Amino acid sequence: MKQIVRAFxxxxxxxxxxxxxxxxxxxxxxxxxxxxxxVKKLEQRQKSRSNQRTRERLPVLPTLVRVAERRLxxxxxxxxxxxxxxxxxxxxxxxxxxxxxxxxxxxxxxxTIVRDAEGRxxxxxxxxxxxxxxxATIEILRHTGIRIEELRELDHHSIVSxxxxxxxxxxxxxxxxxxKTDQERLLLVTPELADVLSTVISRIRSVxxxxxxxxxxxxxxxxxxxxxxxxxxxxxxxxxRRISEHTIRDxxxxxxxxxxxxxASGNPLTFAPHxxxxxxxxxxxxxxxxxxxxxxxAGHGNVNTTMGYTAIYPKDAIEAxxxxxxxxxxxxxxxxxxxxxxEEWDEFVGNFERRKLALGDCGRAYGTDCIHEHACVRxxxxxxxxxxxxxxxxxxxxxxxRIAEAEREGRLGEVEGLxxxxxxxxxxxxxxxxxxxxxxxxxxxxxxxxxxxxxxRIDAPSLPGSR
Length: 467
Description:
This protein is α+β, with helices and mostly antiparallel strands. It folds into three domains: 2-38, no CATH class; 61-271, hpI Integrase, Chain A (Orthogonal Bundle); 342-450, no CATH class. It is 48% helix and 13% strand. The longest helix is centred in the last third of the chain and has 28 residues, at 412-439. Residues 452-467 have low confidence and may be disordered.
């Protein structure tokens, strides 16, 4: 918004130079300086949020992969059991019971839907399709780091071979069509990626062994592409169609939900297709891939863009800090780092128990003795509990009576000592009154507490009007 306002004022100033009779009265100094329109802080915040998102998802990626494989196996087991069951029968798969209908609308006579024990409608064929493409999407994205639009543009011709000039060894490559940067690139096909791609091709082949040619619409170019043997296609009502981006995202969300992964605050973890791209680049650089090579693989025009995708921990800073702590510890006496004995620990814990007094708690430092001969009313380190205020008032009244009695008896030395105790008691009563007054004020926000269930700080509810 600041850039738009600044550009508007600059345009008026430029027009005023060309047509002063029309725009001169509207010309004014630009209220937004060049420094104010800087987006450096915004970019840094976005980079920080992106890094935190990558660091949170990189460790749980193996769990997501295992869940995707498990869901695909279970979906195939249900579908195979349904295809083998006669019409009108009852089948039990993976501990669940389903009822096969007596009639079917398919030409091959096989059922399309079943009913579970609660009567809900289930489509095992659709479930298996979505589980398969969720698994394929996760595998391809995590092994290549390509964008989702590049994923949907993969076709049978994208898999090419390259013979090394120094030997006869043939290397499979994956050709990525130009997308965001209008520049194609070649990626090395690992054995794991080759297994996934071969599984996808085997699934979409026709009876004659060829991959069907389908039309597709390019939403970015706003044009129809010629028929191509796209890998991301499936049959809908007997017609081969391109799988939409919305369907891919929904299938991915279903797998993530089934994984039960949560973030640091306990909320369900979310994965976007672009998260796999950031994870791929970060993991590659962490494992020693040079940044300029990662730039070529990712298809970035600038290596700074590639480094912006990485969420690498400051390894050098962490190692240097650890070395500094080790050197500092070596200079300290070894007795400071010895193991604490049970007797010392009991003494430390018992110290806090001995601090509990009749009127509250003692605030003296650990390991120090009482210098007031346990005359707690006089001691400024006595932390009086608000619930002991009536007892403190009783002590004050008792001291007043004792002072009056000592004055009548002529014990002036005792009067002086009791007067010091009386002044300390009245001061503590005044402190309790001020503390209670602050709590009842409209600006008191309470003391923050820590919720052990969710592991985060929760501010105490404010009183009415404390805004």
